[in-house]
């Protein structure tokens, strides 16, 4: 029987991703997350209207219609935002890039450099005002970005983009063994 070309690997030798030194995002990202919570307060309008239509006493309308959304906003701002910020981070390694996000549901996304098609630094109005940006990584076969690192200082986003582009240029310039075999 011939050797198996695609050997089965045991996971005992794989380093856990949580052991990697994830770089934190810019502290201004916390402000972006808090501003993103403001739509929660817009819940007050339909709640007040429904309660008013039901003929509830004005004190109850105000306490439930304003109090519940305000309580939800405060809980999210005090508990969810710091957890989301603290867990968001990225790692740049020799062959791949990793992003970790989440507050309740955690996700780690990894992209190898060989899959990267192009990179984009993006800023919305709030991000421009806070001096932060997102690095969007587009990979082969994808119709939109497959990885977006939020909350990077604008300079850091540009540096990271340039580093990845430089690495991609070096990979394309280096001849592979297959190229040498085909030209011989």
Descriptive report:
- With 184 residues, this protein is of the alpha+beta class.
- The protein has two domains: 53 residues; 85 residues, PH-domain like (Roll).
- Helix content is 46%, strand content 22%.
- Strands 1-2-3-4 form a four-stranded antiparallel beta sheet.
- It starts with 22 loop residues before the first strand and ends with a helix.
- This is PH domain-containing protein.
- Pfam families: bPH_2.
- Keywords: Membrane, Transmembrane, Transmembrane helix.
- InterPro entries: YdbS-like_PH.
How can the largest sheet be summarized? 4 strands, antiparallel
Multimer state:
single chain
What is the rounded Rg?
24 Å
Kindly state the mean pLDDT as a whole number?
Answer: 86
Shape: elongated
Terminus-to-terminus distance: 32 Å
Unreliable spans: none
Tell me the strand percentage band: 15-25%
Strand order of the largest sheet: 1-2-3-4
CATH class of the largest domain: Mainly Beta
Tell me the total number of β-strands.
7
H/E series, N to C?
Answer: EHHHHEEEEHEEHH
Give the CATH superfamily of the largest domain: Pleckstrin-homology domain (PH domain)/Phosphotyrosine-binding domain (PTB)
Assign the structural class, choosing from mainly alpha, mainly beta, alpha/beta, alpha+beta, or little secondary structure.
Answer: alpha+beta
Total domains: 2
Percent range for helical residues?
40-55%
**What is the name of the CATH topology of the largest domain?**
PH-domain like
Count of helices? Answer: 7
Query: At CATH's second level, what is the architecture of the largest domain?
Result: Roll
């Amino acid at each position: 029987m011939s050797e198996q070309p695609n050997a089965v690997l045991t996971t005992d030798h794989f380093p856990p991703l949580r052991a990697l030194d994830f770089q934190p995002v810019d502290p201004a990202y916390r402000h972006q997350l808090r501003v993103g919570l403001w739509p929660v307060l817009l819940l007050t309008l339909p709640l007040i209207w429904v309660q008013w239509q039901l003929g509830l006493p004005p004190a109850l309308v105000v306490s439930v219609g304003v109090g519940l959304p305000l309580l939800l906003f405060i809980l999210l701002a005090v508990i969810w935002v710091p957890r989301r910020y603290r867990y968001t981070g990225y790692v740049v390694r020799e062959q791949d890039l990793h992003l970790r996000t989440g507050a309740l549901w955690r996700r780690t996304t990894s992209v190898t450099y060989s899959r990267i098609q192009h990179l984009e630094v993006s800023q919305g109005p709030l991000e421009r005002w806070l001096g932060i940006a997102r690095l969007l990584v587009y990979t082969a076969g994808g119709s939109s970005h497959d990885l977006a690192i939020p909350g990077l200082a604008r300079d850091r986003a540009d540096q990271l983009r340039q580093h990845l582009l430089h690495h991609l240029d070096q990979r394309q310039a280096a001849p592979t063994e297959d190229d040498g075999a085909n030209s011989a």
